[in-house]
What we know:
Number of strands: 7
Strand order of the largest sheet: 2-4-5-7-6
Radius of gyration: 35 Å
Strand content: 5-15%
Number of helices: 8
Amino acid sequence: MRLEFGIYTRIGLNLLFWAFYFIYPFLRFRYTGEHSITYEEIGFYFLVYGFVLYLNNLVLLPQYLKKHNLRKYLLILLPIMLSVAFFEAYVNKTLLQTCSCEGPNSTYALYNFIHLGILLVLFSAVPVLRNYSAKLKDLERAETDRLEAELKFLKAQVNPHLLFNSLNSIYSYALKKASETPEMVLKLSDLLRYMLYEADKHKVELQKEIEYLNDYIDLQKMRKDGFKVNFEIIGDIEHYSIAPMILINFVENAFKYIDPFQPEINLSLVAQNKTIFFSCKNSFNKDSGKSHLLNEQGGLGLKNAKQLLHAFYGERYQIDIHKSDQSFNVKLLITNDEVYNH
Length: 342
């Protein structure tokens, strides 16, 4: 949380500091006996100590926090503190005559120097904390911007691939003057509308994500005859939401690496107990021309899906990928409470 104080709050904190300092003179260890503070001392210490404290907070400390030049900061501050310490010792022993201590001015000045150093640390605590808080806020903002840029990049890798393949298919059907062409255009329009208006959101209704998957599946089945796709949905999906453009990676991957001789895909989505379970299993032929592109962890689409999952859900998901000579199976379980809409 970033510490921000208005002008009146700052004035109040400064008044509270000085009131505490002068109302409780016994906290100042250099006073002994029955000595009580006088108005002259109050004015003297306020002017002398105030000069050092406000010079540090308003001029020296901001420069150090900006440039991080500790050596220059100390080379300016320490001589000022030493000068004030000796000046205070001289004034107290000769002019105000409030010091009952024995010994040379240098000994008394050392006490003054330590005392001033403690006040300086206390008085500088709030500006230092505010600066530290501001840096944390800037780092959080930079990390958020980085994640958003990464998410946009990952989603952008999905969109052009889908658009390119779909336009190629529509073009082929248009050349043939096939009756399916208008329906393909409508399906593609729905897909693009979802990408344009929903993909940049942090989460979308699970129902909308399913409709997007169904449109994609329908479009793919139009492009390639003989594809068998089963999609089972279980649960009250209207009460759930999900990060957009994640599940499509698994479905795209299934269509890309499906067995061309026995093209079959089985999809299952279960939304219950505040979790979302999704499985995608496609037929696979190790002797097909694309098998060398698919390793044990899947292709580029699955890699993107994992990065999106980690960005949105952190460690609150589980993914299991299994490849055999006849099938490729992906199982995803999202356990983040955010998927359930109360």
